[in-house]
């Protein structure tokens, strides 16, 4: 093979591999109960429907929502409390996501009750690692900045190591203790193949009065809580600045209407319902194949171009020999 042909083939193959290895979005966020960033992205970054998401965009801009699956610390290595100060847990101390740290009682919340719970983590790049999920302590006030001391760190409500991804989600079980009113679920996904870790805040409502209920104002209900769909992920992929960070990871650091939530029926399975709908939140997401298929198609096109180039070169070379 001539030097020129080797260079062209190598360039085309490199393009194909780069396209395959660099999905348009990063890694993931809690989908059920829906995380703050996932909820706001599902509402629409340019025109969110809830007052809380509007405030988050006003504070941090729309890019944070397009990067919904990239709340992360590249070199966390389990040192979460050391690296993330009080009041910045939801953003993981990343300035891009600072709108998620707003202390408000009107964040759209998933209705839950105590007992067994199936968590679903929306994933756009799979990695080995452990999920640890915490719940706030009784007396938690959503109208105050979230501190580590407000999480029951001694009793995680769920832990799961290397769960199997299916339908675009890592799914694992946990148990929610007795609580009343608004609470917050904090999830940490620590990779085992890298020091990188991901974080998410999910607002939940156990029913009854919460400590910060009086702090919210207005009466407009929050929109239906939901995780981003395949179509939304694909549509926003070109606006995301997040990329797959590979094995080593790297750090990309980084008021108010009262929502209504539907309470689970007594004795019913703990399948959370969003306000104003009978659809399970777990049913609002699907697989994340669309962005990957698009990138895979581009990679295949690049490889096809390489094959076509070689074919044309062979025919041209053959013709000159015949002459």
Describe the fold and architecture.
It is a single chain. It contains seven helices and ten strands. Strands 2, 3, 5, 6, 9 and 10 form a six-stranded mixed beta sheet that branches. A four-stranded antiparallel beta sheet has the order 1-4-8-7. With 323 residues, it is of the alpha+beta class. Helix 1 (3-21) runs antiparallel to helix 7. Residues 7-25, 212-224 and 244-323 have low confidence and may be disordered. The longest helix has 34 residues, at 289-322. It has helices spanning 3-21, 36-43, 51-60, 63-66, 80-83, 230-236, 289-322, and strands at residues 28-32, 72-73, 110-111, 115-123, 129-135, 158-161, 165-166, 169-176, 182-191, 197-205.
Structural classification: alpha+beta
The largest pleated sheet is described as: 6 strands, mixed
Query: How many H/I helices?
Result: 7
Mean pLDDT: 72
- Spatial gap, N to C terminus: 21 Å
Estimate the global geometry from the Cα principal axes: globular
Instruction: Report the order of strands and helices.
Output: HEHHHEHEEEEEEEEHH
Number of strands: 10
Report Rg. Answer: 23 Å
Uncertain segments are 7-25, 212-224, 244-323
Q: Share of helix among residues?
A: 25-40%
Proportion of strand residues: 15-25%
């Amino acid at each position: 093979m001539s030097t020129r042909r080797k260079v062209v083939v190598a360039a085309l193959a490199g393009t194909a591999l780069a396209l395959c290895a660099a999905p348009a979005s990063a890694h993931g966020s809690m989908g059920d109960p829906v995380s703050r960033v996932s909820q706001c992205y599902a509402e629409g970054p340019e025109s969110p429907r809830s007052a809380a998401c509007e405030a988050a965009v006003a504070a941090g801009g729309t890019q944070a929502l397009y990067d919904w699956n990239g709340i992360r610390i590249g070199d966390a290595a389990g040192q979460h409390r050391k690296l993330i100060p009080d009041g910045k847990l939801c953003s993981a101390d990343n300035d891009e996501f600072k709108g998620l740290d707003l202390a408000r009682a009107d964040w759209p919340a998933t209705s839950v009750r105590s007992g067994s719970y199936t968590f679903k983590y929306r994933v756009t790049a799979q990695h080995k690692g452990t999920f640890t999920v915490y719940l706030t302590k009784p007396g938690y006030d959503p109208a105050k900045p979230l501190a580590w001391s407000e999480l029951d760190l001694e009793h995680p409500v769920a832990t799961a190591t290397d769960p199997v991804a299916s339908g675009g989600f890592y799914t694992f079980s946990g148990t929610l203790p007795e609580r009343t009113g608004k609470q917050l679920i904090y999830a940490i996904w620590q990779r085992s193949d890298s020091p990188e870790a991901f974080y998410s805040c999910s607002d939940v409502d156990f029913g009854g009065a919460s400590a910060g209920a009086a702090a919210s104002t207005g009466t407009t209900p929050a929109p239906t809580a939901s995780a981003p769909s395949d179509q939304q992920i694909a549509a926003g992929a070109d606006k995301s600045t997040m990329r797959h960070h590979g094995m080593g990871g790297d750090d990309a650091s980084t008021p108010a209407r009262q929502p209504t939530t539907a309470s689970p029926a007594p004795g019913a399975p703990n399948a959370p319902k969003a306000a104003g709908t009978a659809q399970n939140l777990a049913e609002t997401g699907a697989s994340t194949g669309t962005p990957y298929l698009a990138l895979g198609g581009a990679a295949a096109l690049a490889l096809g171009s390489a094959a076509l180039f070689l074919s044309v070169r062979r025919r041209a070379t053959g013709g000159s020999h015949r002459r």
